[in-house]
Design a protein that fits this description.
Blueprint lengths: L1 H24 L11 H5 L9 E4 L4 E2 L22 H10 L6 E4 L4 H18 L14 E23 L2 E20 L5 E24 L4 E12 L2 H22 L7
Protein backbone atom coordinates (compact mmCIF):
# COMPACT_ATOMS: atom_id res chain seq x y z
CA UNK A 1 0.00 0.00 0.00
CA UNK A 2 2.82 2.42 0.86
CA UNK A 3 4.54 1.74 -2.46
CA UNK A 4 1.31 2.27 -4.34
CA UNK A 5 0.69 5.56 -2.52
CA UNK A 6 4.20 6.80 -3.29
CA UNK A 7 3.87 5.86 -6.93
CA UNK A 8 0.50 7.59 -7.14
CA UNK A 9 1.95 10.72 -5.56
CA UNK A 10 4.82 10.75 -8.06
CA UNK A 11 2.36 10.30 -10.91
CA UNK A 12 0.19 13.22 -9.79
CA UNK A 13 3.27 15.40 -9.31
CA UNK A 14 4.44 14.56 -12.81
CA UNK A 15 1.03 15.37 -14.30
CA UNK A 16 0.99 18.73 -12.53
CA UNK A 17 4.46 19.52 -13.83
CA UNK A 18 3.46 18.70 -17.41
CA UNK A 19 0.34 20.87 -17.12
CA UNK A 20 2.47 23.78 -15.87
CA UNK A 21 4.89 23.38 -18.78
CA UNK A 22 2.03 23.20 -21.28
CA UNK A 23 0.40 26.33 -19.84
CA UNK A 24 3.68 28.22 -20.27
CA UNK A 25 3.75 27.32 -23.98
CA UNK A 26 0.17 28.41 -24.69
CA UNK A 27 0.28 32.12 -25.52
CA UNK A 28 -2.02 34.80 -26.79
CA UNK A 29 -1.74 35.80 -30.48
CA UNK A 30 1.24 38.08 -31.05
CA UNK A 31 3.26 39.69 -33.81
CA UNK A 32 5.91 37.26 -35.03
CA UNK A 33 9.38 38.78 -34.90
CA UNK A 34 11.87 38.28 -37.68
CA UNK A 35 14.32 35.50 -36.75
CA UNK A 36 17.21 37.64 -38.05
CA UNK A 37 15.82 41.09 -37.26
CA UNK A 38 19.13 42.38 -35.88
CA UNK A 39 21.14 41.14 -38.87
CA UNK A 40 18.64 42.62 -41.34
CA UNK A 41 18.68 45.98 -39.55
CA UNK A 42 22.50 46.04 -39.40
CA UNK A 43 22.89 45.78 -43.19
CA UNK A 44 24.50 49.06 -44.30
CA UNK A 45 22.33 51.39 -46.36
CA UNK A 46 22.52 51.33 -50.15
CA UNK A 47 24.60 54.04 -51.80
CA UNK A 48 21.94 55.28 -54.20
CA UNK A 49 18.19 55.04 -54.78
CA UNK A 50 16.22 51.93 -53.88
CA UNK A 51 16.24 49.07 -56.37
CA UNK A 52 12.83 48.01 -57.68
CA UNK A 53 12.41 44.25 -57.41
CA UNK A 54 9.63 41.75 -58.06
CA UNK A 55 8.99 38.34 -56.53
CA UNK A 56 6.66 36.13 -58.57
CA UNK A 57 6.93 32.92 -56.56
CA UNK A 58 9.16 31.15 -54.08
CA UNK A 59 7.84 27.62 -53.97
CA UNK A 60 8.55 24.33 -52.26
CA UNK A 61 10.61 22.33 -54.76
CA UNK A 62 11.34 19.41 -52.42
CA UNK A 63 8.00 17.56 -52.55
CA UNK A 64 8.89 16.37 -49.07
CA UNK A 65 6.07 15.24 -46.78
CA UNK A 66 6.04 15.91 -43.07
CA UNK A 67 8.17 13.29 -41.28
CA UNK A 68 6.13 10.69 -39.37
CA UNK A 69 7.35 7.51 -37.69
CA UNK A 70 4.23 5.36 -37.61
CA UNK A 71 2.08 6.59 -40.51
CA UNK A 72 2.20 8.24 -43.91
CA UNK A 73 1.54 11.96 -43.71
CA UNK A 74 -0.07 13.96 -46.51
CA UNK A 75 1.00 17.31 -45.08
CA UNK A 76 3.95 19.07 -46.69
CA UNK A 77 7.11 19.35 -44.64
CA UNK A 78 7.57 23.07 -45.39
CA UNK A 79 5.34 26.03 -46.14
CA UNK A 80 3.85 26.42 -49.62
CA UNK A 81 3.81 30.23 -49.42
CA UNK A 82 7.43 31.16 -48.68
CA UNK A 83 7.26 34.21 -50.95
CA UNK A 84 5.64 36.17 -48.11
CA UNK A 85 8.83 35.78 -46.06
CA UNK A 86 10.97 36.75 -49.07
CA UNK A 87 8.97 39.95 -49.59
CA UNK A 88 9.10 40.78 -45.88
CA UNK A 89 12.89 40.25 -45.73
CA UNK A 90 13.44 42.46 -48.81
CA UNK A 91 11.39 45.24 -47.26
CA UNK A 92 13.19 44.96 -43.91
CA UNK A 93 16.76 44.88 -45.27
CA UNK A 94 18.76 47.88 -44.06
CA UNK A 95 15.66 49.26 -42.32
CA UNK A 96 13.88 49.48 -45.66
CA UNK A 97 16.66 51.33 -47.51
CA UNK A 98 17.46 48.69 -50.16
CA UNK A 99 14.49 47.45 -52.15
CA UNK A 100 11.23 48.80 -53.51
CA UNK A 101 9.11 45.65 -53.78
CA UNK A 102 6.35 45.63 -56.39
CA UNK A 103 3.36 43.29 -56.21
CA UNK A 104 3.66 40.33 -58.54
CA UNK A 105 2.23 37.36 -56.63
CA UNK A 106 -1.24 38.91 -56.69
CA UNK A 107 -0.78 40.93 -59.87
CA UNK A 108 -4.01 39.53 -61.39
CA UNK A 109 -5.94 41.06 -58.51
CA UNK A 110 -4.24 44.42 -59.00
CA UNK A 111 -5.04 44.41 -62.73
CA UNK A 112 -8.67 43.48 -62.04
CA UNK A 113 -9.05 46.38 -59.59
CA UNK A 114 -7.47 48.81 -62.06
CA UNK A 115 -9.96 47.72 -64.71
CA UNK A 116 -12.85 48.32 -62.30
CA UNK A 117 -11.54 51.80 -61.48
CA UNK A 118 -11.11 52.63 -65.15
CA UNK A 119 -14.62 51.43 -66.09
CA UNK A 120 -16.20 53.29 -63.18
CA UNK A 121 -14.48 56.54 -64.08
CA UNK A 122 -15.44 56.22 -67.75
CA UNK A 123 -19.09 55.53 -66.91
CA UNK A 124 -19.64 58.24 -64.31
CA UNK A 125 -17.12 60.98 -65.11
CA UNK A 126 -17.04 63.20 -68.18
CA UNK A 127 -13.29 63.65 -68.28
CA UNK A 128 -11.82 60.83 -66.18
CA UNK A 129 -8.23 61.10 -65.08
CA UNK A 130 -6.07 58.25 -66.38
CA UNK A 131 -4.59 55.82 -63.91
CA UNK A 132 -0.92 56.08 -63.09
CA UNK A 133 1.11 53.43 -64.91
CA UNK A 134 2.12 50.35 -62.96
CA UNK A 135 5.70 50.37 -61.79
CA UNK A 136 7.96 47.85 -63.48
CA UNK A 137 10.82 45.98 -61.80
CA UNK A 138 14.43 46.11 -62.85
CA UNK A 139 15.24 42.96 -60.87
CA UNK A 140 13.47 39.67 -60.23
CA UNK A 141 14.25 37.36 -57.34
CA UNK A 142 13.77 33.70 -58.19
CA UNK A 143 14.33 30.51 -56.21
CA UNK A 144 12.66 28.29 -53.69
CA UNK A 145 13.04 25.72 -50.93
CA UNK A 146 15.23 23.10 -52.61
CA UNK A 147 15.98 20.64 -49.82
CA UNK A 148 14.52 19.10 -46.69
CA UNK A 149 16.55 16.31 -45.10
CA UNK A 150 15.08 14.58 -42.06
CA UNK A 151 17.00 12.64 -39.42
CA UNK A 152 20.34 14.14 -40.38
CA UNK A 153 21.48 13.44 -36.84
CA UNK A 154 19.75 11.41 -34.14
CA UNK A 155 20.79 10.27 -30.70
CA UNK A 156 19.95 10.03 -27.05
CA UNK A 157 20.69 8.34 -23.77
CA UNK A 158 18.74 6.50 -21.11
CA UNK A 159 18.91 4.16 -18.15
CA UNK A 160 16.63 1.65 -16.43
CA UNK A 161 16.87 0.03 -13.02
CA UNK A 162 14.33 -2.43 -11.61
CA UNK A 163 11.59 -1.28 -13.97
CA UNK A 164 12.22 2.44 -13.44
CA UNK A 165 13.84 4.27 -16.34
CA UNK A 166 14.42 7.62 -17.98
CA UNK A 167 15.46 8.50 -21.52
CA UNK A 168 16.29 11.51 -23.63
CA UNK A 169 16.31 11.68 -27.45
CA UNK A 170 17.07 14.30 -30.07
CA UNK A 171 16.72 14.65 -33.83
CA UNK A 172 18.08 17.18 -36.31
CA UNK A 173 16.55 17.99 -39.71
CA UNK A 174 17.88 20.42 -42.31
CA UNK A 175 16.11 22.79 -44.71
CA UNK A 176 17.94 24.34 -47.70
CA UNK A 177 16.94 27.51 -49.55
CA UNK A 178 18.38 28.77 -52.86
CA UNK A 179 17.72 32.13 -54.52
CA UNK A 180 19.06 34.10 -57.46
CA UNK A 181 18.86 37.70 -58.60
CA UNK A 182 18.01 38.18 -62.29
CA UNK A 183 18.38 41.35 -64.37
CA UNK A 184 15.16 42.06 -66.28
CA UNK A 185 16.90 44.08 -69.02
CA UNK A 186 19.42 41.37 -69.92
CA UNK A 187 18.02 38.18 -68.36
CA UNK A 188 21.43 37.55 -66.80
CA UNK A 189 21.67 35.89 -63.40
CA UNK A 190 23.60 38.40 -61.33
CA UNK A 191 23.92 36.53 -58.02
CA UNK A 192 23.03 33.06 -56.78
CA UNK A 193 23.19 32.05 -53.11
CA UNK A 194 22.10 29.09 -50.98
CA UNK A 195 21.52 28.85 -47.24
CA UNK A 196 20.53 26.08 -44.87
CA UNK A 197 19.09 25.92 -41.36
CA UNK A 198 18.90 23.04 -38.93
CA UNK A 199 15.62 22.10 -37.24
CA UNK A 200 16.15 20.56 -33.81
CA UNK A 201 13.72 18.35 -31.89
CA UNK A 202 14.20 17.02 -28.36
CA UNK A 203 12.21 14.58 -26.24
CA UNK A 204 12.72 13.50 -22.66
CA UNK A 205 10.66 11.18 -20.52
CA UNK A 206 10.53 8.71 -17.66
CA UNK A 207 8.51 5.56 -17.05
CA UNK A 208 7.84 2.95 -14.40
CA UNK A 209 6.95 -0.67 -15.16
CA UNK A 210 6.66 -3.02 -12.16
CA UNK A 211 4.74 -6.11 -11.11
CA UNK A 212 2.94 -6.02 -7.77
CA UNK A 213 1.11 -8.52 -5.54
CA UNK A 214 3.21 -11.58 -6.35
CA UNK A 215 3.45 -10.58 -10.02
CA UNK A 216 -0.33 -10.70 -10.45
CA UNK A 217 -0.74 -6.97 -11.12
CA UNK A 218 1.26 -4.71 -13.38
CA UNK A 219 1.93 -1.04 -12.77
CA UNK A 220 2.93 1.17 -15.71
CA UNK A 221 3.44 4.94 -15.55
CA UNK A 222 4.82 7.21 -18.27
CA UNK A 223 5.66 10.91 -18.28
CA UNK A 224 7.47 12.96 -20.88
CA UNK A 225 7.90 16.22 -22.69
CA UNK A 226 9.10 17.16 -26.18
CA UNK A 227 10.13 20.40 -27.89
CA UNK A 228 10.16 20.77 -31.68
CA UNK A 229 11.64 23.81 -33.38
CA UNK A 230 8.99 25.24 -35.76
CA UNK A 231 9.75 24.43 -39.38
CA UNK A 232 8.21 27.70 -40.49
CA UNK A 233 10.64 29.61 -38.25
CA UNK A 234 13.61 27.75 -39.72
CA UNK A 235 12.49 28.39 -43.31
CA UNK A 236 12.04 32.08 -42.60
CA UNK A 237 15.48 32.32 -40.96
CA UNK A 238 17.11 30.62 -43.96
CA UNK A 239 15.36 33.00 -46.38
CA UNK A 240 16.41 36.07 -44.40
CA UNK A 241 19.99 34.80 -44.22
CA UNK A 242 19.89 34.35 -48.01
CA UNK A 243 18.74 37.95 -48.55
CA UNK A 244 21.55 39.24 -46.33
CA UNK A 245 24.15 37.12 -48.14
CA UNK A 246 22.76 38.27 -51.51
CA UNK A 247 23.29 41.92 -50.53
CA UNK A 248 26.86 41.39 -49.34
CA UNK A 249 27.71 39.22 -52.34
CA UNK A 250 26.51 41.99 -54.68
CA UNK A 251 28.77 44.46 -52.88
CA UNK A 252 31.74 42.09 -53.25
CA UNK A 253 31.04 41.83 -57.00
CA UNK A 254 30.75 45.63 -57.18
CA UNK A 255 27.18 45.50 -58.47
CA UNK A 256 26.34 48.13 -55.83
CA UNK A 257 28.04 49.76 -52.88
CA UNK A 258 27.25 50.65 -49.29
CA UNK A 259 26.65 54.21 -48.20
Amino acid sequence: MIKAALVGLLFLTGCASIEEQASEIIEEPRIQDNPMQVELSNVPALNGPKMTIGVYSFTDKTGQREPADNFSSLSSAVTQGAEVWVIDALMQAGNGSWFEVVERVGMDNVIAERQLIRQTRENYLDNPDPLDPMQFAGLILEGGIVGYDSNVATGGNGARYFGIGAASEYRVDTVTVAMRLVSVSTGRVLISVATEKTIASHKTGADVFKFLDMSTKALEIESGFSVNEPTNYAVRAAIEAGIIELIYEGARRELWSFK
